[in-house]
Amino acid sequence: MGNYLLRNCAAVMVDNGAGPRVRRDVDLLTDGPAIKAIAPNLSATPEAEGAEVIDASGWFVYPGLVNTHHHFFQTFVRNRADLDWTKLSVLEWLDRIYPIFSQLTEDCFYHSSLTAMAELIKHGCTTALDHQYCFPRHAGKYLVDRQFEAAERLGIRYHAGRGGNTLPKSEGSTIPDAMLETTDEFLADCERLIDRYHDGSPFSLRQVVVSPCQPVNSYRETFVESVALARDKGVLLHTHVGEGESPVIEARHGKRTVDYLEEMGFAGPDVFYAHCWELTHAELAKLAASGTGVSHCPEPVYLVGTEVTDIPAMAAFGVRVGLGCDGAASNDNSNLMHCIHSAYMLQCLVASSRSHPVPAPVDFLRYATTGSAALLGRTDIGRLVPGMAADLFAIDTRRMDYVGTRHDPLSLPAKLGIGMATDLTMINGRIVWANGEFPGIDEAEMAADAEATLATIDF
């Protein structure tokens, strides 16, 4: 791994811990996996000696985006008219799509993960959590291992959310028997993955999060024992909450999902939930009090949400918020950059009906960087400042797309949106995407291999 000097950056979004601000006309120097310095004229200093110089004239340099919720395997069911939410009820859709999921092979999980990770990297994402809850029996137990393999190939910082479902369809879940595990099976593989892959050291590229899929599709014991395992191992907890299941949980257990999970200890600073669009203000106050975080996934709101997630209320109550793409079953792309713009625009759409004001545009960038990093328990990523990981992306703003926008780099991702691939994405001091290529990887060959694997699925 070499050192790099990004010389003559038009703007760098720096953050010393008090929030992002813009530094104009500076250089950025990396040292192995970390940022060494951000200052003018670093090329003239001894510390830059030997660094590979990259002309960053016209570039806006941002901290790498951090994706806190995804389902990579679902990239193999994208853009299919026969699975269109607008043509099927939720129950009809689940009955149609889960049998497709149950056909996936180990190779499908590997190539679908490469597909999602590649798109994330192209659009500035440097860290991603995948909530992998699909374990067809014939595919075996090494699906997350193959995801770590894919992450290493592309160089992305990967947090594996090892999910699972334990409640049979005969007892009220939506999961086919071919995709069920026992609680013991699920926990045993979580422990195996933690012992083999989890690295809690600074600049770690591999971590594991215990992530039972959702309380509506698992036994109570699955969640109780997940809490015990995660806290014994010192790892985080994650699940789906507040996406329409609260009335079902209340009918089964006499309380809505937030109270049900809190009662089991599945809440706290080491826990974050995905979605939460149906939560009441009282429930949001409980999340804030316990320190439980929320991975907000804005794009599924267009297709499956009955209301827009109340991000202004979360901000007002002090709920920790990060950003996620969600899976391709409810968001056909893997583009967290696009989610920043979507998140902001959705809140503006419903602003008149909210009791709290829409957060500033820069806050949506913050959700995707420092906010998401905090959800993942990371203090070494999400900000550009010396000593932090050299995770960043850069865009050349000397294009017609950015005329009239360059006065406010911090608001640009939320208000304007960045529609094209980055000019450079760096992870842990390694350039993983530049000049339209993945260095050392034949993208066309990688895509052809993924398409060939996709062709094995019977739709």
Automatic annotation (TrEMBL):
InterPro entries: Amidohydro-rel, Metal-dep_hydrolase_composite, Metal_Hydrolase, MTA/SAH_deaminase
Alphabetized UniProt keyword annotations: Hydrolase
Designated name of the protein: Amidohydrolase
Similarity annotation: Belongs to the metallo-dependent hydrolases superfamily. ATZ/TRZ family.
One Pfam family cited in the UniProt record for this chain: Amidohydro_1
Annotated source species: Pleomorphomonas diazotrophica
Sample GO molecular function, one term: hydrolase activity, acting on carbon-nitrogen (but not peptide) bonds
Domain (Amidohydrolase-related): residue spans on this chain: 60-432
Transmembrane segments: none
Gene3D superfamilies to which the protein is assigned, alphabetical: Metal-dependent hydrolases, Urease, subunit C, domain 1
